[in-house]
Amino acid sequence: MKISWKVILLWSLLPLLIGFFVWQGAFSPAAGNMGNNAASTRMTYGRFLEYLDAERIVGVDLYEGGRTAIVQALDPQLDNRIQLLRVDLPGNAPDLIAKLRDKNVALESHPARNDSALWGFLGNLIFPVLLLGALLFLFRRSSNIPGGPGQAMSFGKSRARFMMEAKTGVMFDDVAGIEEAKEELQEVVTFLKQPERFTAVGARIPKGVLLVGPPGTGKTLLAKAIAGEAGVPFFSISGSEFVEMFVGVGASRVRDLFKKAKENAPCLIFIDEIDAVGRQRGAGIGGGNDEREQTLNQLLTEMDGFEGNTGIIIIAATNRPDVLDAALLRPGRFDRQVTVDAPDLKGRVKVLEVHARNKKLASEISIEAIARRTPGFTGADLANLLNEAAILTARRRKEAMTMLEIDDAVDRVIAGMEGTPLVDSKSKRLIAYHEVGHAIVGTLLKDHDPVQKVTLIPRGQAQGLTWFTPGEEQGLTTRAQLMARIAGAMGGRAAEEEIFGDAEVTTGAGGDLQQTTALARQMVTRFGMSDLGPISLEDQAGEVFLGNSLVSRSEYSEKIATKIDDRVRSIAEEGHQIARQIIRDHRAAVDRLVDLLIEKETLDGDEFRQILSEYADIPEKEQFVPKL
């Protein structure tokens, strides 16, 4: 029979309570009080002797071994009524007792109360009881903490959340923009619902599906949709929940997870962020007995080992597939790798339609226009965009969000919060020339993306911004496009040099120079777009992780490194000269656009191109426009 901790605590405190009530009954104020409440008035010893000589003392009660007395005295000012007075007696008055007897005064002596034994007993009892109560309280609290002392016997148990019927509230209709991934995973749902359709032709259920993609693209959302559609038992856990500081705990939790899954097969297991436990082995750090490696070994055995796990489908998600162990990725463990990328234009339109269901949109808002404005946004980015627009709408006390809130939300998500506008000064004019330099170079170069907006309103760390609308779905980029981007990035520095001279060049082009250098180096070392020839000299930069070599080695000689630096410098200088020539040839247009920008603080792309067209022929941009 299970006894409640409250009952145990009450029985532990019972002796203390009994002792307290006994003490209260035996030594109550009625039995042992020396009359403090009745004799609140004090009398000096000399006055007491005068009253004694005048035979006004009726009775005396001695307390505290004769050091204190409660005197019953007749007060002549109160018609000889008896008054209780307290007198502090001297310790060297041996004749006082005889004198009281001679005056026929009623005398009583009350011995001092000796309760030291009781207090010693209670003191010895209180500490063990309080200690026992504190231990029971801590034991009770720790039983609710995962891995606490109250759960010592279940420390190696799996922490996976289990749902017999996964009511995630997400179906495939709620997932948009990643149609290819949905088709791949729809087969998994069909396997679970109607396995006979596949087993009849000799097909077997895939054991694992690995969802790979950048953060925010909807990998976890897809797993929720699979669970909601399949209607089978569903286990969900994070990869970090397997690994603990104690040896053997991770492997024990893996065994317990698959044991529960086999009892509820067919079922789904979703492991989020599997790279936390599935990183490559054999890094040479910590030897071969690393706790994480033992957990991974147990996971590999359970997924496709000697016993097998028929009826269990494992879905895992990661944004770092390059760090996963090769044994984990082989067929038989993860039979499929489904790539979940950022949505294209059509996908963004569908994602925005899903997230706009509960938003109040003005009639003039175009979902397609928002999708064109947000290339490269993931599903999470688009959801956050509409939420920021809704917050701005509520802050401005509007009933429905308009394109103004959408545009402000896009700017806020990309560049940060809006700052205080600059006052009209030399610094503001210099920033205006810098931004117009970017915009005019980008507009007059055929292979550059078109200008979307130029503004002097600070956002984040930037004092001014020039927005370009990237070409849609550019899987390949030409050398002309890269050179146009380099020249556009150098447009701000070129405008400063042409207008104000080299002495007035500012630090505002620091980020532009970093972007230019990075593009030029990639053109030389990765894309073979220089006279060094069509060779790749550098791999794509990646983070160092366990399982890869910690020592980076150069893939080319020092002579080639010098040539690379020369080619990078020449490409950057070529873009710089293109930008300066454009600014020099269109100085009148630059001055007018700067004056207008300072006056209005923001120019949209159409207005910018309309004014520039009065001074120069604007090349027609080639953009890919898919059919919606």
Structure in words:
There is one protein chain. The protein is α/β, with parallel strands linked by helices and 628 residues long. It has 22 helices and 14 strands. A six-stranded mixed sheet has the order 6-8-9-10-7-11. It has a five-stranded mixed sheet with strand order 1-4-3-2-5. A hairpin with a 5-residue loop joins strand 3 and strand 4.
Quickly list its features.
single chain, 628 residues, alpha/beta, 5-stranded mixed beta sheet, 22 helices, elongated, disordered C terminus
How would a crystallographer describe the biggest sheet?
6 strands, mixed
What is the number of helical segments per DSSP (H or I, 4+ residues)? 22
Strand content: 5-15%
Strand pairing plus helix content: what structural class?
alpha/beta
Low-confidence stretches: 24-39, 145-153, 542-552, 624-628
Q: Write down the overall mean pLDDT.
A: 78
First-residue to last-residue Cα separation: 69 Å
Q: Order of strands across the biggest sheet?
A: 6-8-9-10-7-11
Specify the helix fraction band: 40-55%
Radius of gyration: 43 Å
Gross morphology: elongated
- Give the number of DSSP strands: 14
In short:
This protein is of the alpha/beta class.
Topology:
Blueprint: H1 5-26, H2 29-32, E1 41-43, H3 45-53, E2 57-63, E3 68-75, E4 81-88, H4 96-102, E5 106-109, H5 116-142, E6 161-163, H6 179-193, H7 196-199, E7 208-212, H8 219-230, E8 234-238, H9 249-263, E9 267-272, H10 291-303, E10 312-318, H11 326-329, E11 336-339, H12 345-355, H13 367-373, H14 379-395, H15 403-415, H16 426-444, E12 451-455, E13 465-468, H17 479-489, H18 491-500, H19 510-525, H20 558-585, H21 587-600, E14 602-604, H22 605-612
